[in-house]
Amino acid sequence: MLFLIVIVLFRFSDITKSYGGNQILRGVSFQINPGEKVGLVGRNGAGKTTLFRLLTETESPDTGVVVKMNGLRLGLLDQHVDFDAGDTVHTAALSAFKHIHDIEAEMRRLEKQMETDHSDSILERYADLQTQFEHADGFAYASTAEAVLLGVGFSREQWNMDTAILSGGQRNRLGMARLLLSNADVLLLDEPTNHLDVNAVEWLEGYLQEIDKAYVIISHDRYFLDRTAERIVEIENGKAVSYKGNYSKFIVERELRREQQLREYENQQALISKTQEFIRRNLEGQKTKQAKSRRNMLERMERVDAVRSEKHGGNFNLKKIERTGNNVLTTEDLAIGYGENVLARGINILLHRGGVLGVIGANGTGKTTLLRTLLGQIREVSGSITWGTKVNIGYYSQSLDDLYDGNDVIAEFRRVAPMVDNGEVRSFLARFLFFGEDIEKKVRDLSGGEKGRLALAKLIYSQKNVLILDEPTNHLDIPAREALEAALDEYPGTIIAVSHDRFFLDRIVTQILSLEADGTVLDFDGNYTEFHAWRDSRSSNSDDKDVRSRSIIVDAAPTGVRTKLSKNQRQQIERRIAEIEERLPALEEEVLRLSAEMAEPEVASDYPRLQNLTDALSKAEENVNAHYREWEELNDEID
Q: Which CATH number fits domain 327-553: 3.40.50.300, 3.40.50.200, 3.60.20.10, 2.30.30.40?
């Protein structure tokens, strides 16, 4: 008889987990097999990161078991990445190959011993080590490490940098490189695209597609999940449901499954209602025995969970907006920047009414500067900007500085809807995932994602006929991004959006403006995927011409896209960098303090205190990340 042995890397079996009386996981069961490429999705707070903690044994389940293959090597990128004192970027990456270093060291020792000892045992051991060295790719590990360092964004000039002086973003990128190079059987990747620019994200997608080891990815980047996941596990209502395929296939399959579950739920509810009515009428009558039998049947019945569709195709009931002229925005030979520091030249935009322009580019290429110039907050360096007739602009800033901390959610929304009845306000806020008591929260107590949703809800309802959005999907989980996309689908006006969210760009934009790092500005009619395919074909064939696109070459001055900073500008930037570096230790210490306080045993049973600490930690981490982003951008300017 032939037996098929199925190897399992790890399995969650009926896992439950609660924090302070709030049950996060309630019967999670799924397993990961060798070579599987899995995306783990769910709302913020659904328990995705908790599953990683349970797997790495930094936490324990309340009930259920986590079964792991004997000797399983897990690779997890910690939020706080540490390196050995004196490590450089290069040596820290090579430290992932400790197993190869150990083989090499023993081989060198045996080579010395074999000068005088030619015994069979020594020769056999050396031959065995040689085989291990070759199987571990020992002859190519250094070049592999260097390729990965380049992939995650470390230039060769940065390889000798001491790890002690790296920014938070750089430390995370180096930790990612070390993890990818590790000898782990399975990689646990929690938001791996954070701190990576578009080029590094695309490199990581290609790298993950090629490796044969298993990995599990937690990510809000749906485009990334489409290109790296072959199976999606969704955590919803404390349970896990597995779907075969990438993220786009998961969306379709999930909706079909939910429609089926909804029919089963409705049929079961009808059966329960009919059975209960039979029991009520006959429990004391001639059919008492049958009534009791049916009552027992109801008690044993496994109930189908209620489910609501995640489709966002319903009507947002947006108010009519004033119609603009046909040409909403025209720029001619526009140059943007600060004084003598020119970030981009030759920007020519023609945006018609109802169009959606997506602005993309690497950090430091001038995306936000372009928006601020279009808004008149910064003067253009040269060229012209012409807005069309009857244009009324609404602006979404990453800083969210238009929210009043003292207002609750509904009062803040009423700043753009003072005369609207409560039912309509609540209904509209629900489309942006504010339910029940959520609308009574103070703005100051909202998470970054909640503040973003509130600001976007206000803006879309405000009857502005042109929306300018700066990274609108930052801090939003996937359901919130889907809600935003649904609202923008219904919005009848014109949109300009800076975004790194490629799925979002594919969903809403009609044309792309790309500020390229190599000194070109590309304008393309179509969405991100179409633009990306065109740019790839264009780079592989420099003679290729596409009538849908036009390339505007930036003025080829000796200084390139960015002109030389004046002495005064450089001094101002260096002072700000010094201020940030002075503040960061205290900000990071606050994050560590809050994390330590949350880990105290008495906190777990004090849910209000745990909730307050969770919110405070989220704000503290956002503050640290904002300072690191500014530090990196300022350093880019003076490089």
A: 3.40.50.300
